[in-house]
Amino acid sequence: MIHNEELNNLERIASGDHEAFRSIFMKYYPKVKYFIAHIIKSEETAEDLSQDIFFRVWTSKEHLPNLRSFNAYIYRMAKNSALNYLEHKYIEDIYVANYSNQSESITPEEELNAKELEFLIQIAIDQMPEQRRKIYIMSRIENIKNGKIAETLGLSEKTINNQLSLALKDIRDILALVFLFFL
Q1: Could you tell me which residue ranges the RNA polymerase sigma factor 70 region 4 type domain spans (predicted)?
Q2: Could you list the residue range(s) of the whole structural domain that residue 77 is in?
Q3: Which of 16, 45, 112, 131 has the highest count of CB atoms within 10 angstroms of its CB?
């Protein structure tokens, strides 16, 4: 339950009183920062997150007088902020680890071969009849379902399947010629 003095401060903050906000800030900021730093193990990031919390307190100040416990409110914000930070950091760490693993495992020669292969596939696509090329692009590049392609182009789904089979055969034929030439 909020004490009278704190409730008075919260009402003053809600009306835009900077001195009342300063008073609440000075009382809670060190505690919030310590609490967050203990969870995330970074003093600097804890400072940033704590400042963000008090910025949010100020920007939503009109709701403060309705609180049953400012202490519970501010610590819930701190806990959520710390957990959100840790979740985003975890996801970022996984992404960085996966990206660095991929980049380490691909040699410059493999990258060049992949680019050549993409170029050859693009040549095969460019040589397809217009409708087949359009169907292939919609299906394989734009990831549109065959039923939707049929509906969009006014064709049967069987025609779409046949054209995709022919498109893939065109690509295989060009790649087979290139591989025979280079082997």
Answers
A1: 124-170
A2: 4-103
A3: 45
* Residue 104 pLDDT level (bands cut at 50, 70, 90): low
Helix extents (H) in the chain: 4-14, 18-40, 43-59, 70-105, 108-126, 130-136, 146-153, 157-182
Maximum C-alpha span of the chain: 87
pLDDT band at 4 (very low <50, low <70, confident <90, very high): confident
Contact 4, 18 (CB under 8 A): no
Q: For position 145, which CATH number holds?
A: 1.10.10.10
CATH code assigned at 80: 1.10.1740.10
Instruction: Report CA-CA distances (Å) from 181 to 172, 175, 176.
Output: 14, 10, 9
Cα angle: 120, vertex 125, 127; to 5 degrees: 95
Quote the CA–CA distance of 90 and 82 in Å, as a whole number. 12
User: What does the block give as tokens for 18?
Assistant: 């900077």
Could you give the 3-state DSSP secondary structure of residue 15?
A: coil
Mean pLDDT across the chain: 86
Whether the pLDDT of residue 100 is over 90: the answer is no
pLDDT of residue 134: 93
